[in-house]
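Regression test attached.
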Amino acid sequence: MSRLAVPKTYKLYIGGKFVRSESGRVYEVSSRKGGFMANAAKASRKDARDAVVAARAAVSGWSGTTGYNRGQVLYRIAEILDGRRAQFVEEIAASEGVSASAAAAQVDEAIDLWVWYAGWADKYVQVAGNANAVSGPYFNISVPEPTGVVAVVAPQGSASLLGFVRAVAPVLVSGNAVVVIASEQAPLAALSLGEVLATSDVPAGVINVLSGSPAEIAPWLASHADVNALDLLGAGDLDWVDLQIAAAETLKRVLPPESGPDAGAASIDRITFFTETKTVWHTKGLL
Amino acid sequence: MTFLDYAPAPESASILNLKSEYGLFINGDFVPGKGESFTSISPATEQQITTVSCASEADVDTAVVAARRAYERTWSKLSGADRGKYLFRIARLVQERSRELAVAESLDNGKPIKESRDVDIPLVAAWFFYYAGWADKLDYAGLGPAPRSLGVAAQVIPWNFPLLMLAWKIAPALAAGNTVVLKPAETTPLTALLFAEILQQADLPPGVVNIITGAGATGSALVNHPDVNKVAFTGSTAVGREIARSTAGTAKKLTLELGGKGANIVFDDAPIDQAIEGIVNGIFFNQGQVCCAGSRLLVQESVHDEVVDRLKERLSTLRVGDPLDKNTDVGAINSASQLGRMRELSDIGEQEGATRWSPACTLPDKGFWFPPTVFTNVSTSHRIARDEIFGPVLSVLTFRTPAEAIAKANNTPYGLSAGIWTDKGSRILAVADKLRAGVVWANTFNKFDPASPFGGYKESGYGREGGRHGLAAYLAPAAVSSRGSSRSSSASSVKALRGGTK
């Protein structure tokens, strides 16, 4: 007789804690074949706002760490994810209806992407910043700094884990904190990734994962005054222009949606877009 | 005569050879506009300087069509080296005609001639000279090999540094290979029109730069024109917000340089003499009509009284008056409406309980004038500590610890500039790290250079002007089509936009 499985309750990941939606709502997540997989939490406006509060509280600590430190934490995510490879392969194969080998390839690519971005944490400043030779007795330098709290709509289509990592990893490199809405139809890999993050020395609140309806939650994040930037990577099927218009109220930086297999592909641009260039002038003494 | 009295030493406006009427500069020629003409006045005397055309929506379209044609037929086919040569020519012509441009700027804007002569116009020439050299070196701009121009750039600039803002916009746009339609502010069109004559002298191909005059409606028609690929705006946060909304969903690449409420932080170990000069320069330069002005003075409590006393003493020596007089420190306010806003917010400052002070100074009868003003006993919730006054009005607040100074400095939706005054280098670097502002001046203030990126955090806008970063605002990485991406919001064109960020 086969052993009776112990299924997991999938919750939101906010402020380093796994919580149910304050609304008490759930929605049914099905496998590609239509079978019941889980009741995922259906995040509400209040959950989104709680996530922004948690993210804001995490910004100064996370952005205050050294690039070397952030790089190690991001690399640690890759290590822990690699250790849980089998779980993610199974979850992805079931929910996306792909073969085990295709699911494994996706997990491997996601792990390697964490490694790639981890390596940028102590380097992007050198590439995106520079000293400026001004015409006067001044030391003058421009450096990129994290923008702050970034709200992300993760890709909604296939590749539920890889799409999620493509959206989230680059935003974290410079020290931003993230509130991310996972794929509505296939949120389980993202929610399970929360468990990886929770055990990878990522400080609480740096990444907050919401499951539910992007159409319902995204407008509250787009108009939230304490969100500094908006990545609409996976918002192509939403009324994303309206989200961009709402974001204009506080002049949020907005990345528009992308589609196709290369949507959100690894790029330093995805790091630097969520940074601000600060230029510091300092007088030089006249000897 | 005391030692502070000076005989007047005015620059003569006779150096100017102005026309009584200016048309729109489209496709290399001045043409009449279809809108209702308006006059540009001197804010120091309220006397009319000249009459200027107003571009209607049809004129805007004509200008964009001219810019598109010049982009496709001429400018995008030119080598980078040749684009650079045109820009070098322009830089030289600006230098040659700098005295005339300085007089025109002070006449039209009201700023002291010593500022237009020593700051604005020299920086204009420097900006063109700097970006001229970039035109054939775009491979090194940080966007990978062979980056591409975007197409037609729509540029709308403010009245506080009329010709300098034009240079900030046009020089990088042309160096990167774009063509331009630029609208100067309605109260300060004069130097832009003289600049159009310089372009004729430089023999710049027709349509590469088009300068259209008008008010808000003209600017709105320009930035919302479907065939522009790039929008660059400097001005108020309210208008910037409107532009961000109206360009949402398009593939137009947008840079916004908006308002500010800069904190100038003075620690108790600061070199006080220099700090006083820096505070004055921070808020009374250009009558405080500067987006990056140090309009909030944060003084460490232990030196508050000394700093305020010495500041008042210094302000009593400032000479307010004729912008064309070489002795003038503080000139005229640009317009009646700006003056009204300064008066309104200053009155609110008094009503909310802050203490108002101005030096004794006689203001001319005609024109728009506002005396240098200092508010003490200001708290962070006061309107004069939160709203951008955009005038010669300083709000003084205090702090005890560096942490408090940082918290107060960052307590604003803006994030454009900040100043730090202390003799301790390690403190400067630590505080500079924590300030959420795009430009931080340590033991100096209001310094600008074409090699130095400038722009804001938060609601002060996005994108940078100046330096390599400023060039990137007008380029996209290779293999991204710029033409054809302006109208649609399809996935591919959106990608083109994304590829070009920062």
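Expected vs. actual: identical. The first strand of chain A starts at residue 12 and ends at 14.
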